Amino acid sequence: MLDSHFSYIVEKAEAETSVKDFLRHCIDVPKFLACCQACPNYAHRWSCPPFSFDPMDVWNAYTGLRLYARFLIPGNADGNALMGALRKEKPGFLQELLRLEQDTPDSLALACGTCDACNVCAKESGRPCAHPEQLRYSIEALGGDVGEAAQRYFGKPLLWVHNGEAPEYLMLVGGLLTR
Ligand code: SF4
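^ thats the input. predicted complex w/ iron/sulfur cluster below
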């Protein structure tokens, strides 16, 4: 990809596991609920906890899990530019996941991160989600450990920008629950 000021490439990877395996190794709802509580999106977006349902009911309604990763590898992009690229890639990644969901009967897409389809989420004003067709929960919102999933199923750790410097890659992780 070539932005006006920097370049990066996107590599795709897929992995497949069972919900049973994922629950055993990557799910800890109370632990990640506590992480979500420290985030400004907590209770401010319909995609984020607290939920009116038990996240375990979502996991337990499915048997299979396909995981999809997008690695953003910097060309001449610095850390800030790569973070901008990550934000830019996220909506397209969600659309890909939604297409996979549409093509797979009885499946449910798992988004990468919070829903930011609207600048201000309708939850802020107590209204129902404005675009439920776009709203999907992320692995972490449902109590999943994305760092552990990245390492276990893709053999790669999550990396972050440090002091404005781009790491070897930044990673988006989404999924598709199947029956
Ligand atoms: S689509 Fe809009 S209203 Fe619905 S969860 Fe996303 S940001 Fe909130």
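Residues 8-178 form one domain.
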